[in-house]
């Protein structure tokens, strides 16, 4: 299991409509573990909830983490919004499944809604490195634009455009024109709702940006997970074969038989439970692995994915 530690909510503020930001610091003033642009932390909340939130401050900073949380229907965001300044919170160390290629000559950052959070850290990093980049931030309304003031006052403000659905037509995102003007060696980073990511990704591919240069991060699985199939799982190290019934995840089934796999989001988003497949064909239902990684068929996320074959042999 990943090591955890305690931080204090040093500051909490309303950043936009239904969005609160939190500044987390070590209770004793010590430096926090370093993080890279695109990283997130697991936040452990009351009731056993664990949620992932992107770090959105400058990775050069060592004294604090900043996260921002959109209030949604889920219990996690409600629990976060209920936290008050001074509260002590347990978090996991920074992890990064959405890494920035800081050596790229050109980078295009496209955010939808709360998807702005990891891209803020990327913009800070690219600016420090004096790299060529542009940040396009799409929101439903001007009031929903988190960190809008910070972006207006940033030293890279000339690289930023905010596109509000309720604003003049002239300022709305013209994705086709934006991508048509992108160079072939541009790296594209997109974060936001699943539908937004899919739209940007498809448009980028249609405009000749190679799949390997398109990077995305989801905050939740794109849709309901199908768990109607039953199959067997064999543990290579012991030879045990365990039947996984319909309606139960591989993670939960194995746990019931005394085999624990580290798990966090349970939605196929964070990658905590990534497991090696030795035989069989996974039925991928995550949004963590890339299409290339899925095609290899040698790893899967047992919190949500299942099997297309009667048997999966796992390196456990």
From TrEMBL:
<dbReference type="GO" id="GO:0051537">
    <property type="term" value="F:2 iron, 2 sulfur cluster binding"/>
</dbReference>
<dbReference type="InterPro" id="IPR012675">
    <property type="entry name" value="Beta-grasp_dom_sf"/>
</dbReference>
<dbReference type="InterPro" id="IPR054582">
    <property type="entry name" value="DmmA-like_N"/>
</dbReference>
<feature type="domain" description="2Fe-2S ferredoxin-type">
    <location>
        <begin position="231"/>
        <end position="316"/>
    </location>
</feature>
<keyword id="KW-0411">Iron-sulfur</keyword>
<keyword id="KW-0479">Metal-binding</keyword>
<keyword id="KW-0001">2Fe-2S</keyword>
<dbReference type="InterPro" id="IPR039261">
    <property type="entry name" value="FNR_nucleotide-bd"/>
</dbReference>
<keyword id="KW-0560">Oxidoreductase</keyword>
<dbReference type="InterPro" id="IPR050415">
    <property type="entry name" value="MRET"/>
</dbReference>
<dbReference type="InterPro" id="IPR036010">
    <property type="entry name" value="2Fe-2S_ferredoxin-like_sf"/>
</dbReference>
<dbReference type="GO" id="GO:0046872">
    <property type="term" value="F:metal ion binding"/>
</dbReference>
<keyword id="KW-0288">FMN</keyword>
<keyword id="KW-0408">Iron</keyword>
<keyword id="KW-0285">Flavoprotein</keyword>
<dbReference type="InterPro" id="IPR001041">
    <property type="entry name" value="2Fe-2S_ferredoxin-type"/>
</dbReference>
<dbReference type="InterPro" id="IPR017938">
    <property type="entry name" value="Riboflavin_synthase-like_b-brl"/>
</dbReference>
<dbReference type="InterPro" id="IPR017927">
    <property type="entry name" value="FAD-bd_FR_type"/>
</dbReference>
<feature type="domain" description="FAD-binding FR-type">
    <location>
        <begin position="2"/>
        <end position="101"/>
    </location>
</feature>
<dbReference type="Pfam" id="PF00111">
    <property type="entry name" value="Fer2"/>
</dbReference>
<dbReference type="GO" id="GO:0016491">
    <property type="term" value="F:oxidoreductase activity"/>
</dbReference>
<protein>
    <submittedName>
        <fullName>Oxidoreductase</fullName>
    </submittedName>
</protein>
<dbReference type="Pfam" id="PF22290">
    <property type="entry name" value="DmmA-like_N"/>
</dbReference>
<dbReference type="InterPro" id="IPR006058">
    <property type="entry name" value="2Fe2S_fd_BS"/>
</dbReference>
């Amino acid at each position: 299991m990943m090591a955890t530690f305690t931080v204090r909510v040093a500051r909490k503020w309303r950043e936009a409509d239904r969005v609160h930001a939190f500044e987390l610091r070590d209770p004793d003033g010590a430096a926090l573990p370093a993080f890279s642009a695109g990283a997130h932390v697991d936040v452990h909340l009351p009731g056993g909830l664990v949620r992932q939130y992107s770090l959105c401050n400058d990775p050069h900073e060592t004294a604090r983490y900043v996260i921002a949380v959109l209030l949604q229907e889920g219990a996690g965001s409600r629990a976060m919004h209920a936290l008050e300044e001074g509260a002590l919170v347990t978090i996991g160390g920074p992890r990064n499944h959405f890494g920035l290629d800081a050596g790229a000559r050109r980078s295009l950052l496209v955010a939808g809604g709360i998807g702005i959070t990891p891209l803020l850290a990327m913009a800070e990093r690219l600016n420090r490195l004096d790299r060529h980049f542009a940040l396009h931030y799409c929101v439903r309304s001007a009031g929903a634009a988190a960190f809008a003031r910070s972006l207006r006052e940033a030293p890279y403000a000339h690289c930023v455009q905010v596109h509000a659905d309720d604003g003049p037509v002239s300022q709305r995102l013209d994705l086709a024109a934006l991508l048509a003007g992108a160079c072939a060696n541009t790296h594209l980073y997109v974060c936001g709702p699943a539908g937004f990511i899919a739209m940007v990704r498809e448009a980028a591919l249609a405009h000749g940006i190679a799949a390997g240069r398109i990077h995305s991060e989801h905050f939740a699985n794109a849709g309901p997970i199908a768990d109607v199939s039953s199959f067997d799982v064999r543990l290579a190290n012991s030879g045990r074969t365990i039947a996984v019934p319909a309606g139960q995840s591989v993670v939960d089934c194995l746990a019931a038989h005394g085999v624990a796999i580290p798990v966090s989001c349970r939605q196929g988003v964070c990658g905590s439970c990534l497991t090696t497949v030795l035989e069989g064909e996974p039925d991928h239902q995550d949004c963590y692995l890339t299409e290339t990684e899925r095609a290899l068929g040698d790893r899967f996320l047992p919190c949500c994915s299942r099997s297309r074959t009667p048997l999966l042999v796992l390196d456990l």
